[in-house]
């Protein structure tokens, strides 16, 4: 039997109950007809795409959004079953599904688990109801607790909780309270991000000086609500939150294995580690991105185009599911290997670099590595070049040094 190449799969479900004010992901509310139409097309895409990757074995699946759990149980389990039928999925593959509080029941969680999901990622963001309202979340902390308990009762023993710091009106004390409440629940994994105000979001209209509140997606009432939001924490407070996160989670037994991700030993997210270490991935669904055979491409982000395409016709398949097809050069692949790999606290393997590219890492990046070590931003340990604590603090600067 031939040795198959490893592949990760990302499945995008773009629907959500209401789009949050800070969110720049490809997501939107949808009616039942749109959801059924999308599910049908997604299953068709799975059949078409899986026929083209028979030389691969899938080592992880991540179903994200949007809010995947907003689909009906029947539709979601149909998607999961079609993945199993179409792809050669490793027996112990990590299969993650994102859910939001208030969108899961005991029955739906049982069905997800029976269909193969073995890891749940829950979007909490904050344990403070006022802060949740500022973010535009549809749930309270109490609703999160009930959903979390349902997840545990359904038998899931690998759970991630997403958190966001530096949100409007947040104080150092309220952020510490969120960390306390979440760690008391003992999830296996915590993703803790600092809020980024992205262009094109309602938050950009509120918090960026060059914005004139011109977002066409805002009603007058929504614009008024945005103006009434409290200010973001200042830069010093945001930095204190960052240090508090690192120290507090370490004290609670969570190892920081990536810039924004912490886990109990053995519960690192295998899917994300694959992204950061150069494993090939295939994106399924609206707008999803792929990286295969040294090429980057993505599916169309246009809903009607995605749902109406004749995927059984090769020309239309290529047009809709292979957009902005780009063959990376060896230099671009090495750059990506470095700036993605350095997100991991373990760092970049010198031997792995040789195995991947046939070049000694020092022959390619020796001058940059020496400069970063002299500045105290990187170190070489156990065969890995990694960021120091100070390097992690200014990681964007360090990573930019490896770009041509």
From TrEMBL:
CDD domains: Radical_SAM. It is found in: Cytoplasm. InterPro entries: Aldolase_TIM, Coproporphyrinogen-III_oxidase, Elp3/MiaA/NifB-like_rSAM, HemN_C, HemW-like, rSAM, rSAM_sf. SUPFAM superfamilies: Radical SAM enzymes. It comes from the Bacteria. SMART domains: Elp3 (SM00729). Keywords: 4Fe-4S, Chaperone, Cytoplasm, Heme, Iron, Iron-sulfur, Metal-binding, S-adenosyl-L-methionine. GO terms for molecular function: 4 iron, 4 sulfur cluster binding; coproporphyrinogen oxidase activity; metal ion binding. GO terms for cellular component: cytoplasm. Gene3D superfamilies: Aldolase class I (3.20.20.70). One of its GO terms (biological process) is porphyrin-containing compound biosynthetic process. The keyword Heme applies. Its main location: cytoplasm. PROSITE patterns: RADICAL_SAM. Residues 1-230 form the Radical SAM core domain. Pfam families: HemN_C, Radical_SAM. NCBIfam families: hemN_rel (TIGR00539). Probably acts as a heme chaperone, transferring heme to an unknown acceptor. Binds one molecule of heme per monomer, possibly covalently. Binds 1 [4Fe-4S] cluster. The cluster is coordinated with 3 cysteines and an exchangeable S-adenosyl-L-methionine. Belongs to the anaerobic coproporphyrinogen-III oxidase family. HemW subfamily. This is Heme chaperone HemW. It comes from Lacrimispora sp. BS-2.
């Amino acid at each position: 039997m031939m040795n198959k190449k490893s592949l990760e799969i990302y499945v995008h479900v773009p629907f959500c109950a209401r789009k949050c004010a800070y969110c720049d992901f490809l997501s939107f509310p949808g009616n039942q007809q749109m959801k059924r139409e999308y599910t049908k097309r997604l299953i068709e895409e799975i059949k078409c795409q899986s026929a083209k990757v028979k030389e691969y074995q899938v080592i992880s699946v991540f179903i994200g959004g949007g809010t995947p759990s907003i689909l009906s149980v029947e539709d979601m389990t149909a998607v999961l079953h079609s993945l199993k039928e179409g792809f050669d999925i490793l027996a112990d593959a990590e299969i993650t599904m994102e859910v939001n509080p208030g969108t899961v029941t005991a029955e739906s969680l049982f069905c997800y688990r029976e269909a193969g999901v073995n890891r749940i990622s829950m979007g909490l963001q904050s344990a403070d109801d006022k802060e949740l309202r500022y973010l535009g979340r549809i749930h309270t902390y109490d609703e999160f607790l009930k959903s979390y308990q349902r997840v545990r009762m359904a038998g899931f023993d690998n759970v991630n909780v997403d958190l966001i710091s530096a949100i409007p009106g947040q104080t150092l004390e309220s952020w510490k309270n969120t960390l306390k409440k979440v760690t008391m629940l003992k999830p296996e994994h915590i993703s803790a991000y600092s809020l980024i105000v992205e262009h094109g979001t309602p938050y950009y209209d509120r918090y960026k000086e060059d914005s004139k509140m011109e977002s066409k997606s805002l009603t007058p009432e929504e614009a008024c609500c945005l103006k009434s939001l409290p200010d973001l924490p200042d830069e010093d407070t945001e930095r204190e939150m960052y240090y508090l996160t690192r120290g507090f989670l370490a004290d609670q037994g969570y190892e920081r294995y990536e810039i924004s991700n912490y886990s109990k030993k053995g519960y690192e997210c295998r899917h994300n580690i694959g992204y950061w270490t150069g494993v090939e991935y295939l994106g399924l669904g609206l707008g999803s991105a792929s990286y295969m055979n040294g090429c980057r491409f993505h599916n169309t982000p246009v809903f009607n185009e995605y749902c109406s395409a004749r995927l059984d016709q090769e020309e239309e398949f290529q047009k809709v599911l292979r957009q902005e097809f780009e063959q990376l050069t060896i230099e671009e692949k090495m750059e990506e290997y470095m700036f993605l790999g350095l997100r991991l606290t373990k760092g970049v393997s010198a031997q792995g670099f040789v195995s991947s590219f046939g070049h000694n890492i020092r022959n390619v990046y020796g001058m940059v590595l020496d400069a970063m070590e002299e500045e105290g931003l990187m170190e070489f340990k156990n065969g890995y070049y990694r960021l120091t604590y100070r390097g992690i603090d200014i990681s964007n600067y360090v990573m930019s040094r490896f770009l041509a």
